[in-house]
Amino acid sequence: MSFLPIILMFIVLYFLMIRPQMKRQKEQKAMMEALAKGDEVVTAGGILGKVSKVSEAYVTLEVSDGTEIVVQKVAVSTLLPKGTIKSL
């Protein structure tokens, strides 16, 4: 009976912290695997670019006409809707 509060605390911790974090990681992994040429993304550093080449661990982003940078896939934080960069 004395373990009941501890068990309840772990159950609450699981549903409030661990489970949402696992869901977010799964969504992030699926997004990275689905990256394709032409997608518009934002990196963890805040750089906006259009994907021009995708390899196993790296993504080449076109940040302006004729300027490309290579970043790790894990640095891509957000996938933007098509046409977002042109509207900026």
Describe, in short, the structure shown:
This protein is an alpha+beta fold.
Protein topology:
Layout: H1 4-33, E1 40-43, E2 48-54, E3 58-64, E4 67-72, E5 76-80, H2 84-87
Antiparallel strand pairs: 1-2, 1-5, 2-3, 3-4
Keywords, separated by commas or semicolons:
39% helix, alpha+beta, 2 helices, 5 strands, single chain, 88 residues
Silhouette: elongated
The SSE string, one letter per element, is HEEEEEH
Share of β-strand residues:
25-35%
Oligomeric form? single chain
Q: Which regions have little confidence, pLDDT < 50, spanning 5+ residues? A: none
Strand order of the largest sheet: 4-3-2-1-5
Structure classification: alpha+beta
Mean pLDDT: 94
Question: Would you give an account of this structure?
Answer:
- The chain starts with a helix and ends with a helix.
- A 5-stranded antiparallel sheet has the order 4-3-2-1-5, covered by helices on one side.
- It contains 2 helices and 5 strands; from the N terminus they run αβββββα.
- The chain is 39% helix and 33% strand.
- The chain has helices at residues 4-33, 84-87, and strands spanning 40-43, 48-54, 58-64, 67-72, 76-80.
- The chain is α+β, with helices and mostly antiparallel strands.
